[in-house]
Design brief:
alpha+beta; 5-stranded antiparallel beta sheet; 7-stranded antiparallel beta sheet; 15 helices
């Protein structure tokens, strides 16, 4: 979970005389095993007017998985998985049904044992069924098959009234639409998810790094620009690209190329490596080919520690890179050279292939080239610094990118927790319809999450210990 939403008052690294209280942590958790546990918990919170949260792993940048005074439905041990042939008018093929507690690595490993792959996250510990897929969900197979939300076939969900429903394109289709990209923890508590599965495939992978110190700075940025101009060709052939840009270095870590042989990957990198050699910049390159995506993932997808970071994001459209790369580079340069340790991470995919009418993923995703995530440090001992950097994110860094992307948006799961006009930025043209579906299935607002659909109806009252109260 993002550090600003954890309970720093009980931080074991603070002095022994520091205060310790529950703070923003939930008061009680229900270790759920099945839908019945969900139903009993919801009945209890309805009867006693208690705040409810839902949590699997807590991979959450916006504090949706916790809340002061709440009861949390903990889904982490709901580990069922099964594979079968799925047949419907919309899709016929292999499918995998997962319980709400399944994490990415578990899903990848299970699929691989059957000679299959599914769309999941880059991090092995991210939960698949919760906010990841419900919020859209990018990952190393997204350019090949679409976002995680594009894979959803059926949701098994308990609504606020306690009813257990199946939501698919043919059954409770409005709820299916909302759950598939409209944000986690908002419309119901998901018990299981059934997704499309695909045959395993040969995969190539790349890591490439080079440093800024002791090199010509204009030359460094020319290479960074050339790399970004090569991204459309990379993602169009099915690659997933993750890069990191700072005032010290540039790193591609990794590129995953499902179905792409090593020789083709080397050719696609030529613009970047040729630029490095032309600018006389030394670099480290690792490229390999694997017999399966799973082996490539195990070798190249390294987990990133996000427990000491604050983040915000903006989706960068393909058109900006193709038509005005100089302005984008200038903006990136101003952010990473701001003197506060800011980093820009880019997650690059092509998810334009999906049928956008069947789910509620923000349509801005379909013309995006990458998700630009701005990262600043977080200090467990300096609250004033954290507040300063959080406000710089909201008022300086993200507006710098927003000026270049009018009418654009951000990825729900990697957005600024203070994002102004979140309805348009995170949900786009889908917000009004999502709001109506929220009212239909959760008229009392039991499912609350920060910056979620309908969250503007509530506020957290700091004078009452963070209690969730209605806006009157």
């Amino acid at each position: 979970m993002a550090p600003q939403f954890t309970n720093n008052s009980c931080n074991p690294f603070l002095p022994r005389n520091a205060s310790c209280s529950l703070g923003n942590y939930i008061s009680y958790a229900v270790n759920a095993s099945d839908a019945t546990d969900f139903q009993k918990t919801m009945e209890f919170v309805r009867d006693h007017n208690i705040r409810l949260t839902i949590r699997n792993t807590g991979h959450d940048y916006n504090g949706k998985a916790t809340g002061a005074g709440a009861i949390g439905i903990w889904t982490h041990h709901m580990k069922s998985m099964e594979s079968f042939q799925y047949n419907s008018t919309a899709y016929t093929g292999r499918a995998i049904k997962m319980g709400a507690g399944i994490q990415t690595e578990e899903a990848y490993q299970y699929a691989h044992s059957l000679g299959l792959v599914i769309v999941g996250a880059i991090s092995p510990t991210v939960g698949v069924v919760g906010g990841y897929t419900q919020g859209g969900g990018h990952g190393p197979l997204a350019s090949r098959f679409g976002l995680a939300a594009d894979q959803a076939l059926e949701w098994e969900v308990v609504t606020a009234s306690g009813h257990l429903l199946i939501a698919s394109r043919s059954q409770n289709a409005d709820l299916y639409w909302a759950l598939s990209g409209g944000g986690g923890g908002t419309y119901g508590a998901v018990v299981s998810l059934t997704v499309k599965a695909y045959p395993e495939m040969v995969t190539s992978a790349v890591n490439l790094t080079f440093s800024r110190p002791n090199v010509n700075q204009d030359g460094f940025w020319r290479v960074v620009a050339a790399f970004q101009e090569s991204l459309p060709a990379l993602v169009d052939m099915g690659a997933y690209v993750s890069f990191y840009l700072s005032n010290e270095s540039f790193a591609i870590a990794p590129i995953q190329g499902p179905g792409i042989p090593k020789t083709q990957m080397e050719q696609a990198l030529n613009a970047t490596t040729s630029g490095l050699e032309r600018e006389n910049i030394r670099y480290n390159l690792s490229i390999a080919e694997f017999s399966s995506f799973y082996d490539s993932h195990r070798s190249f997808d390294v987990p990133v520690n996000v427990s000491q970071l604050q983040i915000g994001g903006r989706l960068i459209p393909r058109s900006l890179v193709q038509s005005n790369i100089s302005a984008l580079i200038q903006a990136q340069r101003s952010i990473v050279d701001s003197g506060v340790g800011a980093i820009i991470s880019g997650v690059c995919v092509n998810v334009s292939i999906a049928n956008t009418a069947v789910n509620s993923v923000n349509p801005v995703w379909r013309t995006a080239l990458y998700d630009a995530v701005v990262v600043t440090p977080f200090s467990y001992t300096d609250d004033s610094s954290n507040l300063l950097l959080a406000n710089m994110m909201t008022n300086v860094f993200l507006p710098t990118l927003a000026q270049l992307t009018p009418n654009g948006g951000a990825y729900i799961n990697e957005a600024d927790f203070q994002q102004p006009d979140f309805q348009n930025v995170l949900y786009g043209v889908n917000y009004h319809k999502l709001r109506e579906i929220k009212r239909k299935y959760d008229p009392s607002g039991i499912f609350y999450a920060l910056k979620a659909v309908g969250s503007e109806d509530w506020f957290q009252d700091a004078t009452r210990g963070g209690r969730l109260c209605p806006v009157l």
